[in-house]
Amino acid sequence: MSFIPYSLTRPILFGMDPEAAHDFTMNLMARGQNTPLQCAWSRPMVDDPIELAGLKFPNRVGMAAGLDKNARCIDALAAMGFGFVEVGTVTPRPQPGNPKPRMFRIPEKKALINRLGFNNDGLDAFLANVRRSQIRSSGKSGKPMLLGLNIGKNAATPIEEATSDYLKALDGVYPHADYVTVNISSPNTKNLRALQSDEALDSLLDAIAERREQLATQHAKRVPVFVKIAPDLVEEQIGVIAATLQRHGMDGVIATNTTISREAVQGLQHAQEAGGLSGAPVLEASNQVIRQLRSALGSRFPIIGVGGILSGADAVSKIRAGADVVQIYSGLIYRGPDLVTEAARAIAHVR
Ligand SMILES: Cc1cc2nc3c(=O)[nH]c(=O)nc-3n(C[C@H](O)[C@H](O)[C@H](O)COP(=O)(O)O)c2cc1C
Questions:
Q1: 83 lines ligand 1 (CB under 6 A)
Q2: Longest Cα pair distance anywhere in the chain, in angstroms?
Q3: pTM (two decimals)
Q4: What is the CATH number of domain 6-348?
């Protein structure tokens, strides 16, 4: 398998504005997927199967949500060796997100700040792309990568009506997903994270659980639902969230999203930009949330660990904190596709 070392590509991408580099790469991957160009980013799929939430993951490293918000590059990402790829966050209607600039690098700390605000083309376009992906349409058995579809609410929908957006999105993605993620932890949609608080979470998950039962009957398949939470939570809140997830029969928790804390990047260029901080500085905060979740949820409840994985050792630290599988986003920007195989190999023998 031939490939271009990321050490040659990265200086070119880092010479560009961060969002321009992102768009350039995504356009290239969308056009190049399933063509000979794909060898530029293809990596071997590490074989480390695990069964979790009733799903068979071919390995334990996944692509985190937010890179491919419109599900345009599913086949390209599958070729990087991920065991699972999560696309979205998708909202029912298209929306432009926040004004640019809205994405920043802090290279000294291998970090990013973004305040994109769920910029996406909406549910219909998203589903059309999912359907078009070869990995879904061909039913190829040689590529058992799992697909997660991550849903959110439109910025213009009042927070009191958030449930109706989540239900619309759930209806749309359900038949196409291996699992669905309910994202209630982006710092870039006003009041979204308030949905993590006791009563709001209880009522949202109540509605989602009820709709999921209906959808399971309608489509004759039970799709696991995961809930994605923030790192900026104290232990007491984590305990309440854990109990609420279990009470409503949720299948797993994804911990964590980006942080609003700036402690780790103080004084550096862009540190004061509004938005969510990701990458190396979020590793320990995310791991701490995972440890607290694991102790609150017991040993069997699925935890998908994400935040700050920049090396195989970081991935191991997340498994040791209590995660069953892990996801990466910022690490891919700083390290390139080699990180996928590095992380998957590092955790392959850690249970
Ligand atoms: C530019 C950017 C956009 C993101 N968009 C989303 C999103 O739409 N939905 C979501 O659930 N998480 C989103 N995330 C959060 C990531 O999925 C992940 O939880 C977080 O970045 C921590 O992981 P990392 O340190 O490996 O990046 C985004 C992260 C970044 C950097």
A1: no
A2: 54
A3: 0.97
A4: 3.20.20.70
